[in-house]
């Protein structure tokens, strides 16, 4: 991927969503759609192709007080069902690695929105899954 990619952000936390938005904009990427809940995301996913989205950043836990990652996993599965590898999914979660089964995993505890933007730009290696949790 390169600069100027069109991005879909699925994140229930307002602070995290703003931080991602700032860092993505600084890296010359454009957020073309956002969702705070699984329901919102599932309504937007079928439009991602028409919006020209090439990357989706998906939080694993979209339901307050539920830490299973099931919400994010369902959104990721829907994206992959409809678009396959056309849209890269970055799992952006806290705690247990890769709750949403994305193409990349980025821990909110270790990596900032800037690193997420760099993944989209292609500045970080594909092997991010092995190092993103800080181990």
- How many helix segments? 6
Instruction: List segments where confidence is low: pLDDT < 50 over at least 5 consecutive residues.
Output: 123-135
Query: Averaging pLDDT over every residue, what do you get?
Result: 81
Widest beta sheet: strand line-up: 2-1-3-4-5
SS content category: alpha/beta
CATH topology: Rossmann fold
Largest sheet: 5 strands, parallel
Beta-sheet strand percentage? 15-25%
**Strand segment tally:** 5
Tell me about this structure.
This protein is of the alpha/beta class. It is built from six helices and five strands, in the order E-H-E-H-H-E-H-E-E-H-H. It has a five-stranded parallel β-sheet, with helices on both faces. The longest helix is centred in the middle third of the chain and has 14 residues, at 70-83.
SSE order and pairing:
Layout: E1 6-10, H1 14-26, E2 30-35, H2 38-44, H3 48-51, E3 55-58, H4 70-83, E4 88-93, E5 104-107, H5 113-121, H6 128-131
Parallel strand pairs: 1-2, 1-3, 3-4, 4-5
Helix pairs in contact: 1-5
Could you give a quick summary of the protein structure above?
With 135 residues, this protein is α/β, with parallel strands linked by helices.
What are the salient characteristics of this protein?
single chain, 135 residues, alpha/beta, Rossmann fold, five-stranded parallel β-sheet, 6 helices, globular, disordered C terminus
């Amino acid at each position: 991927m390169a600069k100027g990619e069109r991005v879909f952000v699925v994140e229930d936390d307002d602070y995290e969503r703003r931080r991602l938005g700032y860092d993505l904009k600084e890296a010359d990427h454009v957020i073309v759609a956002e969702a705070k809940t699984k329901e919102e995301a599932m309504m937007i996913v079928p439009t991602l192709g028409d919006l020209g989205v090439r990357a989706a950043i998906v939080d694993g836990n979209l339901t307050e007080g539920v830490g299973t990652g099931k919400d994010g996993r369902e959104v990721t599965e829907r994206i992959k069902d409809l678009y396959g590898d056309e849209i890269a999914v970055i799992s952006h979660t806290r705690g247990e690695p890769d709750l949403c089964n994305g193409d990349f995993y980025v821990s909110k505890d270790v990596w900032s929105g800037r690193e997420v933007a760099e993944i989209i730009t292609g500045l970080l290696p594909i092997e991010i899954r092995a190092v993103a949790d800080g181990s």
